[in-house]
Amino acid sequence: MAVVCKVQDNARLAEQNPSVELKHDQFFNQLFEQEYSHLEQQGHTYLDYTGGGIYGASQLQKHFELLKQNTFGNPHSTNPTSQHATNLVKDTRKAIIEYFSAYDYYCIFTQNASSAIKIVGECYPFNEKSQLLLLADNHNSVNGLRSYCCNKGGTYEYTDLQEDLTINRLQLRTQLTQPNNTHQRLFAFPAQSNVSGVKHNLDWIPLAQREGWDVLLDAAAFVPTSPLDLSIIQPDFVSLSFYKMFGYPTGIGCLLVKKPKFDKLIKPWFAGGTVRLASVRTNRHFLADNHERFENGTVDYLSIPAVKIGLDFINQIGIERINSRIASLSEYLYCELQKIRHITGQSVVQMYGPENRKEVGGTITMNFYDALRKRYHFQSIEDQANKRSISIRSGCFCNPGIDETQQNIYTTELEDYFVSHQESSYQEIATQLGHVRGAVRISVGVATRKKDLDYFLDFVRLFKNKTQ
Ligand SMILES: Cc1ncc(COP(=O)(O)O)c(C=O)c1O
User: Fold this and answer.
1) How far is C-alpha 259 from the chain's CA centre?
2) Residues lining ligand 1, CB < 6 A?
């Protein structure tokens, strides 16, 4: 089924496509020299930015200087080293709120986007009447919310994707506007797909809210290359990981919670740092009345200041400049890939997603085909890229919905498979169902140069006119 390049059958047209001009080329080439030359020194061509960003040298330097020149203690005290840590954590929280214009939000530090989503799952007041609406394009960390909902007796449903991997708008509108008297309705979707790169329309958020839904926006794949202004679009909950934005530090994410929805999240337990007062002789405690309520134990106070350094780094470059750079990189890659064809005129790669790339970020997912139109297994492509030190990602990217849509797998097939197995893996189900599942994903970022894309394009050309 699916996909994309209509020009696929018109090789001559693709050949004639002029090359796309890369935006801000001089600026980003200079930035590479200053900040990312370690990639070149180590011989890497890194094309997995949706997996994780790459840090700039100055981010590390600034963070290590900060650690070397100061002494930090556990922030839960009033002693000087503790106060110092407390102040830097506070400054970082403020920088995050300013970066996203999230003035009406609490910023809760988490380990990553998944643990931010877990807070919502664990604390959202799901009950027997609750509805959870998910998008078939969700990452598994969002899909997992359905377990919390079902465990409380609620129900969930999915909005399908169309063949071009955009939202089935008619279906979503119908689902959002169905009458219901419950106040526990949660709609969770990604601002940008981690597989197709499709940026879903954020106007669904106010529409859903008007219909009584709370909205969780998974912004993990969106914020590394796009501006998010939470003074304009105001989901109730937003999840993200900072290493995806600027590579360092790993292990820190956040959940942004709209202030009026804060008390709607019911914390089912308490831990150190989350209470104002707790007692042992009575079964009583008073929870903290701000972000601390959800930050269990000690936050990662040595790494958190590196988030502010990362945000300053992005601010210096400018997220709008990054955004237009990424758009031109991905347009260049998309157009050049279309031109690589076997002697038969057939494309070497089949790319997934909409033909109109205007609302698609810096991620392109594809499969490789030989001259006889036989698909290569994604793993063999990754293996061959590995030998050339090209870092790409392959598989189903923790997003089974998009894989099932792309491969046109029926619900009944999947249901039968799950019912008849005690345990299984992604590989096993692919073999047994006879569908070649999975794909190859290329994603670009701030340190990507034309040279890197050309190196990857040369790699793709190696498959021209080859058979398996
Ligand atoms: C869209 C999206 N959501 C959530 C996640 C989970 O992020 P993390 O692994 O940092 O928790 C990812 C990770 O790739 C993602 O791409």
Assistant:
1) 24
2) 50, 112-114, 139, 141, 190, 194, 218, 220-221, 241, 253
